[in-house]
């Protein structure tokens, strides 16, 4: 359904257990391969990245993915271990099995470790990012290093964390721009050069989310939302890796 609606970025992962399903959807869509952007991630088989990418490609029925990510840094007990795995990722790119390589759920310390020895820097860091988890200085740091941020959970403020300090402002902005509160959350990301990713099994909602690319908020509105969001902290994922008040 998403491909039919015009969504050509397909996000998969070993641990999502959706690579085989994605492979079938791609094959049956009839959309040319070069019109699709396919991402998958390694975590379960992080010990053997060369085999992991081969298995993922087999399930996806593809010769390459557009983006291959290390799903999490928390497997590593040292910077050296992170650096060694990044070298294996660079080889995946060199072998033509991934057009771009990146990471997911990395903090600044993890990125710094990788960058110290990388020949090819991560192109992107896919991480939880929304009004109630803005991650301190991570975004400006990534921008300074030319690493894009891709946000998962961008709708958290309206789907998991209500009531909150952004509720009134989100409702007001949605009314002003004749869109949904969800589209305001997505636009808040886009207006900060953050790429939001979200999912839905409802065709109408998928169609609505495409509208988030058709308008922009003012810098003052973006900043006001950001400041309101800082008044609440909510983390939806990896809570076992962070302290209750850790906003990194």
Which structural class fits the helix and strand makeup? alpha/beta
The Cα radius of gyration reads 18 Å
Query: How much strand?
Result: 5-15%
Gap from first CA to last CA: 35 Å
Order of helices and strands: HEHEHEHEHEHEHHHEHH
How would you write the strand order of the largest sheet?
A: 1-2-3-4-5-6-7
Largest sheet: 7 strands, parallel
Level of helix content? 40-55%
Helix tally equals 11
Shape: globular
Total DSSP E strands:
7
Q: Report the mean per-residue pLDDT as an integer.
A: 93
Low-confidence stretches: none
Structure, described:
The protein is an alpha/beta fold and about 250 residues long. About 40% of the residues lie in helices and about 15% in strands. The chain has eleven helices and seven strands. Strands 1-2-3-4-5-6-7 form a seven-stranded parallel sheet. α4 crosses α5. The longest helix has 16 residues, at about 80-95.
Key phrases:
248 residues; alpha/beta; 11 helices
Give the helices and strands, then pairings.
Elements lengths: L1 H4 L3 E3 L7 H11 L7 E6 L6 H12 L4 E6 L8 H16 L3 E7 L3 H10 L6 E5 L9 H7 L3 E5 L3 H4 L7 H11 L3 H10 L3 E4 L5 H7 L9 H11 L19
Parallel strand pairs: 1-2, 2-3, 3-4, 4-5, 5-6, 6-7
Short description:
By secondary structure, the chain is an alpha/beta fold. About 40% of the residues lie in helices and about 15% in strands.
């Amino acid at each position: 359904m998403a491909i039919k609606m015009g969504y050509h970025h397909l996000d998969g992962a070993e641990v999502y257990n959706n690579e085989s399903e994605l492979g079938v959807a791609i094959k049956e869509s009839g959309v040319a391969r070069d019109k699709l952007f396919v991402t998958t991630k390694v975590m379960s088989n992080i010990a053997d990245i060369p085999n992991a990418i081969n298995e993922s490609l087999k399930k996806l029925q593809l010769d390459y993915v557009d983006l291959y990510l290390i799903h999490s840094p928390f497997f590593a007990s040292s910077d050296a271990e992170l650096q060694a795995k990044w070298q294996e990722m660079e080889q995946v790119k060199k072998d033509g099995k991934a057009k771009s390589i990146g990471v997911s759920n990395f903090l600044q310390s993890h990125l710094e470790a990788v960058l110290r020895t990388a020949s090819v820097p991560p192109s992107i860091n896919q991480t939880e990012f929304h009004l109630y988890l803005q991650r301190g200085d991570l975004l400006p740091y990534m921008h300074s290093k030319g690493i894009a941020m891709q946000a998962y959970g961008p709708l958290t403020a309206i789907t998991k964390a209500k009531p909150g300090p952004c509720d009134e402002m989100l409702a007001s902005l949605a009314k002003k721009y004749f869109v949904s509160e969800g589209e305001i959350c997505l636009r808040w990301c886009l207006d900060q050069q953050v790429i939001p990713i979200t999912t839905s099994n409802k065709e109408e909602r998928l169609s609505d989310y495409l509208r988030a690319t058709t308008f922009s908020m003012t810098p003052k509105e973006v900043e006001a939302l950001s400041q309101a969001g800082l008044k609440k902290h909510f983390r939806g994922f990896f809570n076992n890796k962070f302290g209750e008040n850790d906003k990194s």
